[in-house]
């Protein structure tokens, strides 16, 4: 019954009715000219220590009301924040300075901030509205197959055959790279049927136990029996995971990681929540369908005011969890929303389904990165929200530069 309800809701949201030409324009992807981000110079830095603890919540985040009091960012500050660190799999690190060309400041958007209620600290608000994706027919197909798991405990999303977009705090706490990020791995969804897969030899321990105390081989029959027992145990566990809808993961090493200097401050000021995103380049390309980047529209341009994302919440034991919810507020760089989510889902790609004006079909694109639960300062009062970092034209240009190595393919987005 729950599965039927989930797909009915998903189908209904995907078929949002459009009445009139105004609605038709509102719910379309519109290509726009992107500012140019040009790499100016790259410096070699000392290798990081990789000793930071994973940190999901900032000490203090400037909320919408707080941001109103800040001066408009100047070009020099933006170029400093959009400059970026790259850490490679061998532990070396570089800093690349960038120049911004063709940038036009956007007016501040704030649609619904007044009267926002104070809420208790929690990741799930009211009734838990999350759905576990258990059916392998959907789990390994688009769009759910784009969700990935990081070895540091976060989620991410496939944005090319070689790249994963995630939250910066999943690999860096603002001062240093976190423990485990030096040998960072990405897990791609892979379902196994009961009894499938290659047959594995018996464990090393079983083979050792089959030897006599003096190191001589035990009987051939004893060795075969222990190997069979080991295979039965593994196949039973594998089959149970498939029966329970739990995915297996194909783990791939990360070749390098890009993080904006707006986040990786290295002790020189606090990390800015606006820059909590990172791009991982995989050592080995995958063959799965990925999701393209898009520029985050305003709340008025969201069908039903809804956003969607899937991740691996820690409270659901490796299950892929999907949710959709309304956005309650926005700033130029952040979406404040009520999506039910637990730790482990941070780094997920937030996406929309809008109409492609050229091909006359509906298309999903990533418009934000889920940063997680944060306390933000609003009129001097700390309030809690689940927050996502919007992909603005400048951030689109930066991520596109990371993916392609130059800005030639990043003219429009």
TrEMBL record:
<keyword id="KW-0325">Glycoprotein</keyword>
<keyword id="KW-0721">Serine protease homolog</keyword>
<feature type="compositionally biased region" description="Basic residues">
    <location>
        <begin position="189"/>
        <end position="208"/>
    </location>
</feature>
<dbReference type="InterPro" id="IPR043504">
    <property type="entry name" value="Peptidase_S1_PA_chymotrypsin"/>
</dbReference>
<dbReference type="GO" id="GO:0005576">
    <property type="term" value="C:extracellular region"/>
</dbReference>
<dbReference type="Pfam" id="PF00089">
    <property type="entry name" value="Trypsin"/>
</dbReference>
<dbReference type="InterPro" id="IPR050966">
    <property type="entry name" value="Glutamyl_endopeptidase"/>
</dbReference>
<keyword id="KW-0964">Secreted</keyword>
<feature type="compositionally biased region" description="Basic and acidic residues">
    <location>
        <begin position="209"/>
        <end position="228"/>
    </location>
</feature>
<keyword id="KW-1015">Disulfide bond</keyword>
<dbReference type="InterPro" id="IPR009003">
    <property type="entry name" value="Peptidase_S1_PA"/>
</dbReference>
<dbReference type="InterPro" id="IPR001254">
    <property type="entry name" value="Trypsin_dom"/>
</dbReference>
<keyword id="KW-0732">Signal</keyword>
<feature type="signal peptide">
    <location>
        <begin position="1"/>
        <end position="20"/>
    </location>
</feature>
<dbReference type="GO" id="GO:0004252">
    <property type="term" value="F:serine-type endopeptidase activity"/>
</dbReference>
<dbReference type="InterPro" id="IPR018114">
    <property type="entry name" value="TRYPSIN_HIS"/>
</dbReference>
<comment type="similarity">
    <text>Belongs to the peptidase S1 family.</text>
</comment>
<feature type="domain" description="Peptidase S1">
    <location>
        <begin position="140"/>
        <end position="198"/>
    </location>
</feature>
<keyword id="KW-0378">Hydrolase</keyword>
<keyword id="KW-0645">Protease</keyword>
<dbReference type="GO" id="GO:0006508">
    <property type="term" value="P:proteolysis"/>
</dbReference>
<feature type="region of interest" description="Disordered">
    <location>
        <begin position="189"/>
        <end position="249"/>
    </location>
</feature>
<protein>
    <recommendedName>
        <fullName>Inactive serine protease 35</fullName>
    </recommendedName>
</protein>
């Amino acid at each position: 019954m729950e599965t039927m309800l989930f797909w009915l809701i998903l189908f209904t949201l995907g078929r949002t009715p459009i009445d009139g030409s105004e609605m038709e324009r509102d719910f379309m992807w519109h290509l726009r000219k992107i500012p140019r981000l040009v790499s100016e110079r790259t410096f070699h830095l000392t290798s990081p220590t990789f000793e930071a603890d994973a940190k999901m919540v900032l000490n203090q985040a400037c909320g919408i009301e707080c941001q109103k009091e800040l001066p408009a960012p100047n070009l020099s500050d933006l170029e400093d924040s959009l400059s970026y660190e790259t850490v490679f799999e061998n532990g070396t690190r570089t800093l690349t300075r960038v120049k911004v060309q063709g940038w036009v400041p956007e007016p501040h958007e704030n649609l619904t901030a007044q009267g926002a209620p104070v809420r208790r600290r929690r990741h799930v608000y009211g009734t838990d509205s999350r759905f576990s994706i258990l059916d392998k027919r959907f789990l390994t197909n688009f769009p759910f197959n784009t969700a990935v798991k990081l070895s540091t405990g976060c989620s991410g999303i496939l944005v090319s055959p070689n790249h994963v977009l995630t939250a910066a705090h999943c690999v860096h706490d603002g001062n240093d790279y976190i423990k485990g990020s030096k040998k960072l791995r990405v897990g791609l969804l892979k379902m196994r049927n009961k009894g499938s897969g290659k047959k594995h030899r018996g464990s090393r321990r079983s083979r050792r136990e089959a030897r006599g105390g003096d190191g001589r081989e035990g009987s051939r029959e004893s060795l075969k029996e222990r190997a069979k027992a080991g295979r039965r145990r593994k196949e039973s566990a594998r089959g149970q995971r498939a029966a329970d809808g739990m995915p297996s993961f194909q783990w791939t090493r990360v070749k390098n990681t890009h993080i904006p200097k707006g986040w990786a401050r290295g002790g020189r000021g606090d990390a800015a929540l606006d820059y909590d995103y990172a791009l991982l380049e995989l050592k080995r390309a995958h063959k799965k369908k990925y999701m393209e980047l898009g520029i985050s529209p305003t709340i008025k341009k969201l069908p039903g005011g809804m956003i969607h994302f899937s991740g691996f919440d820690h409270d659901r034991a490796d299950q892929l969890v999907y949710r959709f919810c309304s956005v309650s507020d926005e700033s130029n760089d952040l979406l404040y929303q009520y999506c039910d989510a637990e730790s482990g889902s941070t780094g997920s790609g937030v996406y929309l389904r809008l109409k492609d004006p050229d091909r006359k079909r509906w298309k999903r694109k990533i418009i934000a990165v889920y940063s997680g639960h944060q306390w933000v300062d609003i009129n001097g009062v700390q309030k809690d929200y689940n927050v996502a970092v919007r992909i603005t034209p400048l951030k689109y240009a930066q991520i596109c530069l990371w993916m392609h190595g130059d800005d030639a393919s990043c003219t429009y987005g």
